[in-house]
Design goal:
About 25% of the residues lie in helices and about 25% in strands. The chain is an alpha+beta fold and about 210 residues long. Bound molecules: N-oxalylglycine and nickel (II) ion (NI).
Length: about 210
């Protein structure tokens, strides 16, 4: 698909130059509403868990660092009418593999909600016990997000310079990706319920 080929080249260029890339309307409003509805139903059923730091054996709850709640997704249990999500995600992963040479072999995705007053302090997405995460992938699912709702994602593209940052608003349909091991980032306090799908494209782990 020609437009996707161009898309991959654009991502490669942005990641190479700046370490991050984002695009609006990666999902359309109707798709965002469907995905958010799915997340909200699971949340109402009590399926979300308060998020920790790390995964599996290094898992710890650190309320002073992170106060969102998450639900790990699995492809098999996704309702049929939401298949478009994985179709778009898979196409994105193939394009990244074609154009970015990150050696992606696996991925993981979770739904996330930041209720009013929650945040995620500055961090890197690569953990101490594994280096597998190569690219962080985020899609925002919020309808009518306003600047006063806060909850911006603050990226620090130059890790050694705290003064240089870029704030990205969690606008519905927006997709953002960045190099997991290289871009420190934080979620500023959200003044409204903030919904997203967050994932990681993974390669082999070197430790
Ligand atoms: C994360 C994260 C950012 C966001 O889950 O590791 O940094 O904008 N999320 O939701
Ligand atoms: Ni993160």
């Amino acid at each position: 698909m020609e437009s996707y080929k161009q898309f991959g080249d654009e991502i490669a260029l942005a990641l190479g130059h700046k370490g991050y890339y984002y695009i609006d309307q990666f999902f359309m409003t109707e798709e965002i509403n469907q995905l958010r509805g799915f997340a909200q139903d699971l949340f109402a059923l009590g399926k979300f868990k308060s998020a920790g730091i790390g995964k599996d054996h290094s898992f710890q709850h650190h309320k002073e660092i992170r106060t969102d709640s998450i639900y790990w997704m699995d492809r098999e249990s996704l309702p049929k009418d939401l298949i478009f999500f994985y179709q778009r995600f898979d196409a994105f992963v193939s394009e990244v593999n074609r154009s970015c040479y990150l050696g992606i072999v696996d991925s993981e995705l979770h739904l996330a909600v930041y209720p009013k007053g929650t945040f995620y302090k500055k961090h890197l997405d690569v953990f101490q016990h594994t280096s597998a995460r190569r690219l962080s992938f985020i899609c925002y699912l919020n309808a009518d997000w306003k600047p006063e709702d806060g909850g911006q994602l603050r990226l620090y593209p130059q890790p050694l310079d705290e003064e240089i940052y870029l704030d990205i608003e969690p606008i519905g349909g927006r997709m953002l990706c960045f190099l997991s091991g290289e871009i420190p980032h934080e979620v500023l306090v959200s003044q409204n319920e903030r919904w997203s799908i967050t994932g990681w494209l993974k390669g082999p782990s070197y430790w």
